Structure formats: structure tokens, C-alpha cells
């Protein structure tokens, strides 16, 4: 897959995350119900939304870093060892900065 296609895919995913984060923010801004039971359920739902938002924020950072690597000409090269990242790995994890060997080492 060429870099233009990868950049387009990453940008589309980035835009989808931003839209979803906006929905999460709107949901978290809703006032709690006055009924105690409903309020407790709503708080639990808010905690799940916050966790989801945190995960999406982390993915957004990885996508932004991948887009910077594309712009800099470093995309597809492991940021740890400098070896080429397999295309199959990039197809599966387009925002990954590491080759499979380095990712496996932790």
C-alpha cells in the first residue's frame, strides 16, 4: 500500500475518533438524573465513556505520530532498531512505530 493511501486511512480514522470524542464529551456534559439509582447507573456509564475516551486519545496520539513520520519520510521504519516494518504489520497496525521484533521485546 502506498503512503498516500496509508495517510488517507490514518486521517479518516483520526477524523472518526475526533467525532466520537466529541460525542463522548457531549454525553459526559449531560446532567445527572435526580433519581439516585438512575444517577448511579449514569455515573457508571460515564466512567466507561471516560475510559473509552482515554483509549481513543491514546490512539489519536499514535495516529498523529504516524502522520508525522509519513511527512518526515520515516514511516514504515522501526523507531527503535531502524529496520523496515513489514507491510503486513502496517496493514494490521498502520500507526505502529515498531517492527514485530521490537514490539515483542516490549
Automatic annotation (TrEMBL):
dksA C4-type zinc finger positions in the chain? 78-102
Fetch the PROSITE patterns from UniProt: ZF_DKSA_2
Q: Which InterPro entries match?
A: DksA-like_N, DnaK_N, Znf_DskA_TraR
**Keyword NADP, does the record have it?**
no
Q: Which Pfam families match?
A: DksA-like_N, zf-dskA_traR
GO terms (molecular function) for this protein are: zinc ion binding
Q: What is this protein called?
A: Transcriptional regulator, TraR/DksA family
What does UniProt list as this organism's lineage?
Bacteria, Pseudomonadati, Pseudomonadota, Alphaproteobacteria, Rhodobacterales
Amino acid at each position: 500500500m502506498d503512503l498516500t493511501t496509508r495517510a488517507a486511512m490514518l486521517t479518516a480514522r483520526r477524523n472518526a475518533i475526533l467525532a466520537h470524542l466529541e460525542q463522548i464529551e457531549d454525553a459526559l456534559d449531560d446532567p445527572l438524573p435526580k433519581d439516585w439509582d438512575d444517577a448511579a447507573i449514569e455515573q457508571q456509564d460515564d466512567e466507561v465513556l471516560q475510559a473509552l475516551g482515554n483509549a481513543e486519545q491514546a490512539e489519536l496520539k499514535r495516529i498523529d505520530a504516524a502522520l508525522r513520520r509519513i511527512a518526515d519520510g520515516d514511516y514504515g521504519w522501526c523507531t527503535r532498531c531502524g529496520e523496515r516494518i513489514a507491510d503486513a504489520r502496517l496493514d494490521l497496525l498502520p500507526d505502529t512505530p515498531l517492527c514485530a521484533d521490537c514490539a515483542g521485546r516490549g
